[in-house]
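User: For this week's homework, look closely at the record that follows, marking any run of repeated tokens, and judge whether sequence predicts the tokens.
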Amino acid sequence: MSALALPILPHGAPRIFGPVEVGFLYLVRHGQTDWNREGRWQGQTDTLLNDTGRAKATHLGQRLAHQGIARVIASSLARAQETARIVSELVGAGPVGTDMDLRERSFGCFEGLTRDECEARFPDAWARYLLDRRQGPMGAESFDDVHRRMKAAIERASSALHDGQSTLLVSHGGAIRIWWTATTGQPLPPVGNGDVLRFELGAGILRYIDTVDHQGMRRAP
């Protein structure tokens, strides 16, 4: 199957490829960390899952156990790797692959801080960020750079899909939202820990199906 050649189609768009050609792609945000619970900006700081995060990853793997997932690929960050290992073991997908391009956006001086701490310590940078979320603080990775590498990672995973196979990618909330926004031109609501964006892939076109949260509830953005 070829790499993506066109933008993703929205929920409800007509299928323009036959069922024999279809593969499935699952894009997942990692499980919860203590910094998630505390509302701290993680970026590329290498935090670990907490017990809640491991439980959510286990629940996710159990829900996906019969979806024919043949490959699991994760960001190089520990929270994504651990989520991927838990899920992969439960779905029987074998060793986890790593793609550094699935990492979270680096957020420079905001990393490790809560929103209130960002505002208190870096008021000018915080005000600029609130005016335009594409503009990160000093030392942050650019919006466009994140989009380029996320796009490349998703295209690599898609090009390796065979008919009827499923691949699961474990990434990060900010990086997923940047990729979605830059690709579709539409905002994506916050992606919770353990949420899954589901896509069909055929004839080089990625068609969005829905988002399933960690409780199994479905929604379309």
Observations:
- Confidence is low (pLDDT under 50) at residues 1-7, 14-20.
